[in-house]
Amino acid sequence: MNIILNGKTEKVDENISIFNLLENFSNKKAVVVELNGNICQNKDYKLKESDKVEIVTFVGGG
Length: 62
Fold this sequence. Notes:
By secondary structure, the protein is mainly beta. The protein has one helix at residues 18-25; strands at residues 2-5, 8-11, 31-35, 38-39, 52-57. It is built from one helix and five strands; from the N terminus they run E-E-H-E-E-E.
């Protein structure tokens, strides 16, 4: 199935969860996931065809 991940079309397995997506596409520990324009707090959410996902990484600095 295809989703939009950080503005690009990505092919992912059917029934992939947000948690599994982060394991595959993010090596950062401090992230926020935006799903279809809303902050997603449910790591077990199963993605659907054409979902729009943004993975936002926190960056420290001063």
